[in-house]
Amino acid sequence: MQQDVSIAHQKAHPHQTSHKPASGADALQKVAGFMAKHGIAGLPRNYHLVHEAITGHNAGLARDLGALGQRATQHALDQLGLKHRLASHCGLAEERMQSESVALLGKLGEHVGLGILHKQTFARALETITRSIREDETRGIGDLLAELDFLGASAADLLEAETDLALKLKNGLQQIEAANRAAEAAKAMMNKDGLTGLPNRLAFMNRLEGLFAEDGTTPATALIIVDVDDFRSINHQFGEDAANRLLKRMAAIFRKTIKKNDFLARIDGDDFAFLFSDVTAEDAHAIAGRLHAAIENSLVFAAEQGAHKGGLGLSVGIALSHTAEAPMQLLAHAEAALHAARANPRQPIAVYPGPTGRTAGWHVA
Fold first, then answer.
1. Does pLDDT of 281 surpass 80?
2. How far from each other are the two terminal CA atoms of the chain, in whole angstroms?
């Protein structure tokens, strides 16, 4: 059964157009205007933070950003990005946690050094008293008891210091372990698409580069890129929020369509990339057909209120690893096939290279 992603355009009521979500261009203008008005530096992470706040994706972030007022410091902005775990700030989070771990290790080193000093002091006192007893056999019982009392008090102090040191070491190690877990989480966020939760382009490129071993052996792999036809007009007509819902729904459908060990990433605004291992050219064609059909059969949208609901148009490009000698070459081949598919809507699936050495396409049933 087809599912409507609810992006109907209320063209019949012009006076309501002011409530339509802003287009991508309008959103960028709002971000730039806000940053200029508030004196926010034009750093990529600042653009991401402000965009997430003013486009309504994160109401809590919007409130916190407004609370900073005019001329917020870069430190305050960075703390805000870290608080809301924005992907653009994950690198800062990792650096901060590494710095805190180093500082904590330094403090633990000082505590251990102080503990060693206490032990050395006690050992020297014990050695001095023992030597004194051996050298002066005429000393009275009172003197011996006084020295034993001193040693007892020193031993008690040493035991208390050792107990305190053990507790500090335990707490310090727990903090370091927590920092390591947080750093791993930050790394994971750096490789995740914030909208769909899929791996992002960075994760995709790392995976693609991992296919091409230094010894020149490359496993049989198919790279498939899926692109929404004329997504820019969809985004402009229905607004960014509706377009984002569409992408999230596509991601969910793709997840259900592929197997657990297959790789799926969102590598651009409306581009999804797949990597399938141990498949032939015929397998890749069949998989591409299933991906195309999954969206065509499960996802529809309304062009206008009350208008006929139609399937979402897709273009699909396929490239096989044996045609390339490097990651970027394989990606270029897939993009060339995708370009050919876009150019011929009657053949929405294309493979590189075609039967005559050029990209050719196949119809999808």
1. yes
2. 17
| Cα 60 from Cα 285, distance rounded (Å) | 45
Using alpha carbons, list the distances in angstroms from residue 241 to 20, 34, 157, 213, 350.
Answer: 9, 20, 65, 41, 31
**Average pLDDT for the chain:** 77
Rounded Cα distance between 289 and 294, Å, is: 8
Q: Do 220 and 355 fall into the same domain?
A: yes
Both 10 and 144 in one domain: the answer is no
User: Do the domain assignments include residue 147?
Assistant: yes
d(CA 170, CA 166): 6
**Number of independent structural domains in the chain:** 3
Look at the pTM and tell me if it is higher than 0.85. no
Same domain, 12 and 54: yes
Kindly list the distances between the CA atom of residue 265 and the CA atoms of 139, 193, 197, 201, 339, in Å, as whole numbers in the listed order.
84, 8, 9, 7, 19
Confidence tier at 33 by pLDDT (50, 70, 90): confident
Residues 206 and 348 in one domain: yes
C-alpha–C-alpha distance, residues 193 and 209, integer Å = 19
d(CA 71, CA 196): 33
Q: What confidence score (pLDDT) does residue 22 get?
A: 43
Q: Within a domain: residue 195?
A: no
3-class DSSP assignment, residue 57: coil
* pLDDT higher at 87 or 113: 113
Determine the structural domain holding residue 22 and report its residue range: 3-84
Residue 142, CA distances (Å) to 134, 154, 156, 263 in order: 16, 18, 21, 82
Side chain identity at residue 365, one-letter code:
A
Point out the least confidently predicted range of 29-33, 108-112, 245-249.
108-112
Mean pLDDT of 5-20: 37
220 with 354, same domain? Answer: yes
Show the tokens assigned to 191: 């490789």
Residue bearing the bigger pLDDT, 35 or 364: 35
Q: Residues near 10 by Cβ (< 8 Å), separated by ≥ 6?
A: 16, 17, 20, 305
218 and 353 in a common domain: yes
Last residue of a domain, one of 190, 214, 230: 190
Q: How many helices (H) and strands (E) does the chain have?
A: 11, 9
